[in-house]
Amino acid sequence: MAKPVYKNVRIIRASSGDWRVVYEYEFPDKPGNYKRFYVRDGINYVHDSDEKEKAAQELKKDIEVALKNGFNPFLASTKMETSLRTEENRIISSHPSAWTMQEAIDNFLAYCENINLKKTTLKKYKSQTKIFIEWYNNLNINKLASEIDEGTMQSFLDYGVKFNKWSPRTYNNYIDDLSVLFARCEKLEKRKNKEIKYLYDPYFLEKKRTHAERNRYYTPAVASLIKNAVKDDIELFRYIKWIFYSCMRPKEIHLLQIHHIDLDSRQIKVAGSIGKTGDRFVPICDELHELIAEMKLDQYPLDYFVFGRHKKTSDKVVGDDYFRNKFRPYKIKLKLDENYTLYSWKHTRVISLISAGFDDNQVMTLTGHRDRAGFEAYKRELVVDNSSMKGKTIDF
User: Fold this and answer.
1) Within this chain, do residues 355 and 224 fall inside the same structural domain, yes or no?
2) How far apart are CA 99 and CA 145, in angstroms?
3) pLDDT exceeds cutoff 50 at 142
4) Are 179 and 202 in contact (CB under 8 A)?
5) CA dihedral sign, ordered 59, 111, 105, 158
């Protein structure tokens, strides 16, 4: 039996987060000498540790099968000119079996369900792909899944920033998660069409720098100054209190209607079409319940907006910048910089709850985070520390 020309297919799990599958392959002209090859193939775009492990194991399995079937990395082309890639892929994609974008998404989600992907991760993928395919269809983009390139993806990302007001972190999450989609779809489609090649290369997309200071939380002293300044502006004061008590995003409150509020179940439904994490339910605490009673929201038609035009609950929604513009003069008067925003009240609420000893799982029901890893990253951005080391320790 001939000695295999490859060996040691294994996963390297670096503490830095740079995971890869590595193997050695014998030099064609140097028997007994091996070159080491590293393959990442998008697994580092998966941040949940369990899902990342599944992706790494799947990649390892794919590499083992390819090597067993005669794959030779010395004969594989690692880079093509974009024009050559495009033209070659158009020829391949013209094959009747090439997937449309909708077919690719359907197959990807079916794959995720088949491998028992965590429900929260699957829900996130469904929400993100829904937003992507709606944008794709609205623009009548006539491209197969394998023809989508980084230019198309950049247009989608720019759209998200402009019209959905994505934060840098959300923008970067879409790069990561849709990169997982295309990397997996190429593998899945290759099972039926081994000649298919996908154009999309996430490495040509630049991530945005995230600035936690963009929405700086209010210390008790600063918060007190603002509350005293705006308390006579009833509309703005109620709006700020709503952000604080619900931890809803300004956009979510801006489009909130009476029918989203369920006083019997003490919860507010944030529809996936206006939220960024899909459908979720926000608990109504006692303080928010009192605010709802104060505003007499149970007396209005179900299709009315909670914060409508003419400084009251009405059937007409206010402009996107309405409350931001109302808040700006107070910031100027108090000499607060641009890092203090209306959204900062959400962060202030989170820090207040954590500092008061509320459990992270309870706080996550307010923030809308789907997994602990995402919430921990959010806390790190806020520089939240609720450790016992804040109290008395040991005398010198």
Assistant:
1) yes
2) 6
3) yes
4) yes
5) negative
DSSP 202-227: GGGSPPPPP-GGGGPPPPHHHHHHHH
pLDDT tens string 53-104: 888 888 898 888 888 888 888 875 433 333 334 444 443 444 557 899 999 9
Tokens of 77: 């082309």
Per residue, the 3-state secondary structure of 263-279, as one string, reads CCCCEEEECCCCCCCCC
55 to 23, 67, 92, 382: CA distances (angstroms): 17, 18, 27, 30
β-pairing verdict for 261-262 and 267-270: antiparallel
Q: Does residue 30 form part of some domain?
A: yes
Distances (CA, A) of 370 to 91, 277, 278: 41, 8, 10
CA separation for the pair 145, 264 (Å, rounded):
45
Reference 149, options 210, 198, 207, 93; nearest CA is: 198
The SS3 call for residue 337 is coil
| Six token digits for residue 186 | 């190429």
Give the type of residue at 201.
D
pTM score over 0.70? no
User: Cα separation of 34 and 25, whole Å?
Assistant: 5
**143 touches 152 (CB < 8 A):** yes
List the domain range (segments joined by +) for residue 116: 98-210
Structural tokens at position 222:
């600063």
**241 and 147 share one domain:** no
Distance of CA 386 to the CA centre of its chain: 25
- Both tokens assigned to 369: 């985070």
